[in-house]
Amino acid sequence: MPTSPSRSAFPSALATLDKVAARTPDGVTLFDNLSLTFGSERTGVVGRNGAGKSTLLRLIAGDLSPSEGSVTRAASVGVLDQRSDPSPDETTGQTLGVAPALAAIDRLLAGEGDAQDMADADWTLEPRIASALAEVGLEGLPMDRATRSLSGGEQTRLRLAGLILAAPDLILLDEPTNHLDVQARGRVADVLGRWKGGAVVVSHDRDLLRRMDRIVEVSGLGVAVHGGNYDLYAARKAIERETAERDLVEAERTLARVAAVAQRRTEMKARRDAAGRRRAAKGDMPRILIDARAERAENSGGADRLLAVRQAAEAETALAAARQGVERVRTLTIPMRATGLAAGRTVATLSGAVWTTQDGRRIVGPVDLTLTGPERVAVTGPNGAGKTTLLRLITGDLAPTSGQVQRPVPATLLDQEAALLRPQETLVEAWMRLNPDGSVQEAQAALARFLFRNTAAHRRVGDLSGGERLRAALACVMTGTRPPQLLVLDEPTNHLDLDSVAAVEAALSAYDGALVVVSHDADFLAAVGIDRTVSLARPSA
């Protein structure tokens, strides 16, 4: 439900953050002295996992108080959370926030209403509900249906319909297209396109970010605002990376040049001093002249030393700044070990494969499919078409209820939650379990390459974010001595930040094994070089 407005120091702004600081419960600063305004524009919020994107939304919404500074809202605010856990008895009408109003109308129609029901009755509500549900592709959804009976994507769209009905001035959306198929993603984008108020959207969905008016980047160095959509932002970031790399090279050269000049000065002074000592030893120079030359040499040497120290300090400062600049814009890299899969090798064969539930409901099939290395296959289709079930059949996590599946090479399934990792184990323990012939030192080195350095390698899996879990799972399965020759990915970009998405794309582009992926991210599929697409439809009843 939308929050109530409060007075703002910026009348044109819908929400204002003034010198705000936010810290994690263990005292880590996410941002400090942050001042931002949000108006009727569409703002996309990007940044690495854990940088504070969702925290920023919670501050704007009023669900979190800043450690310092103030947050004011001059308008109503509505929120679409990334995750929602409806109660067992929650109905779709309750999720929409219309159950009491519908009950009042029902009482009036049944002749049981009172004066308050009459005063509160909104006779336009039912057609507005129908219109909102149609906007999100949930036409005809009963208001007494249990919300939990809907898929995750359907629940997201239902809550979006609730925002349409409430019509707040400012909406806050946290990863609204996660778990949505292509059609549903398009509906979310259309709703945003028609929205008359302001919108702040945390997302890694590049197509959605292309519809933004500005991009706010959250990082460990603060918050930066970029005008324009995602494509303009990405172009600027590429230029920043090139500039930062050039600055680093130049800073390293400057430091080396300063050190070389200082060394030459030291050597020249040493030669002059030695020559002076030799002349003094001959005894053919007046003492007063010897002392004068010694004084000049000492003064000159002292000045040279001071100059060298100052120049070296300046060069070191410039180098440190250049390194920080590179670190700020450097993209994550994920090394992929060669699998040795021979070209044309069959990696999986499905012959009339079908999987049905215990009550006989067919989820997927019959499927006839042959996969050969090192081809890349995309599995597409609407939510509910059985894409995840097909992946589990391919990897052997499920046995077909009829038909056959053959897998002559090692295969690994990485699902959205990285279920091959166990919540209670540390990353090192997970790596050792999945690579039993490796050592602790090899585990730590492998995890470090995936940015789990030092103590981070000993974090519990259950404490990781969704993006961190996928990154950890990739580290565990791709850095061992026997990486899988068939890699199967189920919506791998759902919980990844944009930097990690780019890294996964680059890694998979270099992967020499066979790849099967379920994804609704068109940019991702294009980046990994899909050779073939298998389209599934919802099974008929």
Predict the CATH topology of the largest domain: Rossmann fold
- The CATH level-2 architecture of the largest domain is identified as 3-Layer(aba) Sandwich
Query: CATH superfamily assignment of the largest domain?
Result: P-loop containing nucleotide triphosphate hydrolases
Return the structural class.
Answer: alpha/beta
The shape, in one word, is flat
Tell how many strands the DSSP assignment holds: 17
List unreliable stretches of 5+ residues: 6-11
**Strand residue percentage:** 15-25%
The tally of helices reads 16
Write up this protein:
This protein has helices at residues 53-61, 92-96, 99-109, 115-120, 125-135, 152-166, 182-194, 206-209, 230-282, 287-329, 387-395, 427-434, 440-449, 466-478, 498-510, 522-528, and strands spanning 15-23, 29-38, 42-47, 68-73, 77-80, 170-174, 198-202, 214-219, 222-227, 346-356, 362-372, 376-380, 402-406, 411-414, 486-490, 514-518, 532-535. With 541 residues, it is α/β, with parallel strands linked by helices. It has 3 domains: 15-228, P-loop containing nucleotide triphosphate hydrolases (Rossmann fold), CATH 3.40.50.300; 236-329; 346-535, Rossmann fold, CATH 3.40.50.300. Strands 5-6-7-3-8-9 form a 6-stranded mixed beta sheet, sandwiched between helices. Strands 14-15-16-12-17 form a 5-stranded parallel beta sheet, sandwiched between helices. A hairpin with a 5-residue loop joins strand 1 (15-23) and strand 2 (29-38). The chain is flat and about 125 Å long. The chain starts with 14 loop residues before the first strand and ends in a 6-residue tail after the last strand. Residues 6-11 have low confidence and may be disordered.
